[in-house]
Design goal:
single chain, 282 residues, alpha+beta, L,D-transpeptidase catalytic domain-like, 2 domains, 5 helices
Length: 282
């Protein structure tokens, strides 16, 4: 059945109104490249990948549900899809701190404490962003620590994502509220690892950040630089050129002052006079 050209605008308007009435849960969440922390969890690998600026910072073993996948109320399964960090609980709590109803009880457990399996150390509470995980927050789906660290690496939880205490504390510090968490059934994607760089070189950090986001957002790598990368690279080269010019100017100034005027030495002993001569700022 075809729609005439006169009725087409009215049809498009009606479709738009219908889409708005359905709400965001009727459509998959659209995730844009992140500028901060992000997490991808693989059920098949039983691993969590921490991303910063599009690069793989670290990978940790985890444990998903022993009862399989899903988001049905009353079921102890792990949901799939995109989530956001809704709440973070456990700031500055000691490693092994026991939580009951998200409150610190005062008890601290060592790894693999016999006969104990509470939520410990940190709680990262997730809120589903899609129809397939809409009940995640109400079902109290967390990323949290467990004393049963010997079970990490295989499905052993009751729906949540379990981690070793030291690992969950590290991830907790890297994920701000609202950060994206993705749980997938397949293996972790191949993402370039983050490169260590000097914190005093912000232009280099910006260049690496842009390159990492481009590689994560495209499946095929392109040999040419993007406009943003070229802009940052140009700024980096200009800054280095200015630094080199300042060094050369300083060297030339010092060379021209070869015969400074002699000053009377203060009445100090030999040790103090030598120390003063060694200090260029004295």
């Amino acid at each position: 059945m075809s729609i005439s050209s006169k009725k087409a605008p009215m049809f498009r308007f009606s479709a738009a109104v219908f889409a708005l009435c359905l709400g965001p849960s009727a459509f998959p969440a659209v995730i844009t490249p992140d500028n901060g922390g992000r997490v991808i969890i693989s059920v098949r690998d039983q691993k969590l990948m921490l991303l910063q600026n599009g690069a793989n910072v670290a990978t940790y073993p985890v444990s998903t549900s022993m009862f399989g996948l899903g988001d049905f109320l009353g079921h102890m399964t792990t949901p799939l899809g995109y989530f956001a960090v809704a709440q973070k609980i456990g700031d500055h709590a000691p490693i092994g701190a026991v939580f009951h109803n998200r409150r610190f009880t005062g008890e601290i457990l060592a790894p693999n404490a016999p006969g104990r399996d509470p939520v410990i150390t940190r709680i990262i509470w997730l809120r589903g962003l899609e129809a397939q995980n809409a009940h995640a927050f109400d079902r109290c789906i967390y990323i949290h620590g467990t004393p049963q660290e010997k079970t990490i690496g295989r499905p052993a939880s009751y729906g949540c994502i379990r981690m070793k205490s030291s690992d969950v504390a590290t991830v907790y510090d890297q994920l701000p509220l609202g950060a994206i968490v993705q749980i997938i059934q397949d293996r972790l994607p191949k993402v370039p690892k983050a490169r260590l760089m000097s914190p005093s070189d912000p232009l280099t950090a910006q260049l690496e950040k842009t390159k990492g986001q481009d590689e994560l957002g495209s499946k095929s790598a392109s040999p040419s630089l993007t406009v943003e990368q070229m802009r940052v690279a140009g700024a980096l080269a200009a800054e280095r050129q200015k630094s080199q010019a300042r060094v050369e100017q300083t060297s030339a100034t010092r060379g021209s002052n070869t015969r400074p005027k002699e000053k009377a030495t203060p009445g100090l002993n030999n040790g103090e006079t030598i120390a003063q001569g060694k200090n260029p700022r004295a």
